[in-house]
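Thanks for the sequence, V.! I ran Ppx-GppA phosphatase protein (Exopolyphosphatase) right away. Repeating your input here for the record:
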Amino acid sequence: MSANLPILPNAISIPARDATSENLFAAVDIGTNSFKLLVVRADPSTGRFLTVDRFKERVLLGLDTNTTTTSATISNASLLRATAALRKFQKLLQSHRVPSSHSRLVATSAVREASNRSQFLQTIDETLGLKVDVLSGLEEARLIYKGILQFHPVHDRTVLTIDIGGGSTEFVIGKEGQILFSVSLALGHVTLTQKFPEVTEMREHIKVIIRASGLNEKVKHYNIDKVIGSSGTIRNIEKAIFRGYASNMEGNVGISEESRRDWSFTTDELKGLVERLSEEERRVGGKVRTQGFFKKRSEFIVAGAVLLEEIFEELKIEEMEVSGYALGEGVIAEKLGDVFDNYDPRANARWRSVTRLATRFNNKQHMKSAALCFSVAKEMFDGLRKGYESGNGSDGFFVSLEDKDLEYLEAACLLQKIGLYAGKKGYHKQSYHIIAKGDHLHGYNAEEVKLIAVLVRHHRKKLPECDHVVPEELTEEMRGKFRILCAILRVSAALEKLQLVNIHNVDFSHTCEGYKLVLEAGNLPFPGYVLPSVKNFETEHVKELEHFRMVFQERLSIAVTSS
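Predicted structure:
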């Protein structure tokens, strides 16, 4: 979708839009250890999604609560727990009003390998009216890889992904969204815990399974660029390493250190954690500490860590990055591809690289003001574009605005203040250098990164003169986009000076007198609070408003109301 700018012939008002349930999607992962429900809200123009809710129920399929053995048959007790969990999920889906066609329930190894699998599926169907898709090991691995691609910008790289579940571990070697090799091995943290009380026997069993799979040869055959782990077990291992569990220093990580978290760990760090966990198992009171840190996962964390250590050893892995997304997000991504015609499977990876850079340098307050800036910028962008779509064009300046341009604008809003870490003076220039000179934004081409960088550079202070400040490597079309987006960004960023606690609603409209931006302030800090003076703001920021008038050939007035 595109629009020609900048003359708006007819009066039009575009209020802020409310998201509807039509853009909600859900995935239910029926795993060996737990059942997980993921609800997301997707942008229909790009397919990029944001998590609305996550729910988790510990079910332990195949584990009889009266014994400590695993079985290939799902017990009646497990079936009752499963039914109760899915009934709860069903009510949650109904409360969110997720369309039934936008949700999918998938089951993994516990159901896949159960001798009474048909009975389990029939009971769920007859009791709750829910259809469950039982994934093969290869299908599970494919969807996990798809989910990881939504989190990590590794679409163009050859990656090995490893996902440790309760009953199996999935391995995928993939590149550009295509699977080069995948295998599902019957090695899970729940089943290993129950079958092998002795770690030595467990290690030998793991070695035998991995060596018989041919995985070693496949890893050697492909030139692996990155190794990425997913699942709760691997995320908990990374969390324990990051928080200093092995060195008895957990709990001493501050907010600034958390924002610089790399979401990765080395083989030496993993070995140190396994040694510490083994010591805790033998030491009196050690299990209490393990339970306190790992909570409900504590009884299986030793098996999960030992399994991962053996995988590192067998496949000669030196470092692993960790994904926050896995099977559930893969199911969602596939569903989005079915529903949205223009779904871009790399939109989420691009977005993740922006937010990761923003949180690395911005504090909580800067992130809040960046989100406020974008809430205004988005309504201005949408209002201008929709208005021009209803017009007949003009003989003035033309530029085509597309959905991706809003993505550039959002990135600039989030990254405008990252240079403040080095001090307030000239921070916009520092922000520019971080974006333009660093290898931080992935999934964007060089021209797109440069556009975001120059938008950030000119969101404040000296007004941009397009012929002088925009790099020559930008095409004429990109220069036109810069001119429009920069005018929107400068106004949106300057509105922070109004010091509103938050903005309840934004309305951007056009009449014969020009454009009008109305901000409805919500949650006033105390009774009798006086709204900030718009007149003072317009006086202080006459340059921004004049720049807007030059670009769009119309004046802009601003008003603030209270809800």
